[in-house]
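QA checklist item 7 of 12: single-chain prediction sanity check.
[x] sequence parsed
[x] length recorded as 214
[x] structure emitted
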Amino acid sequence: MIRVMVVDDHPIWRAGVARDLVEQDFEVVATAADGAAALRIVPAVTPDVVLMDLHFASGGPSGAETTRRIIDTWPDIRVLVLSASGEHADVLAAVQAGASGYLMKSASVEELVTAVRRTAEGDAVFTAGLAGLLLGEYRRMALDPRTDSPRLTDRETEVLRQVATGCTARQIAEALGISHRTVENHVQATLRKLQLHNRVELTRYAIEHGLIDQ
């Protein structure tokens, strides 16, 4: 059973999300009204996934800062942002802080459940429109090919682009007409070249540094 903590300053919304998750066989180990409370509670409940809002009326650390502190202190915990904001700056701040994904509060219960499960499995998950925004930023920040950045093959670059938009290995395999195992091999090769550890770090690296042919 996946252990989830819900952090949101709206009590009705917080309770509703927790109820929806419990009804879908998740274990909601705690809820918190802001970042400060979340940081106090996390070590006692050790969730697998933290559902994190970004802006809290009470002040204190923002959702992005709280995410950064959680990831830095408890790297095995994954954070999925669940926010009403689709602002470019908010999405990038969340990803740069270490969030595994970003979901809008307008998402359906089914989308939320799928996102939490995928996040727990180590996937990077984004609301469809936000995936396009991130890929646009990814292109904008592309590294100069004359630098000494690790050189990826064309196929590795294409797989990386797909990973950066939140696609699963199976979806990538279908889109590129290759096997699931081949996709995994390309992902592992890219991780080794970039000295990263998982798909979340790979997505964050893509956004922050860019490795895409123009």
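[x] summary fact logged: The mean pLDDT is 83.
[ ] second reviewer sign-off
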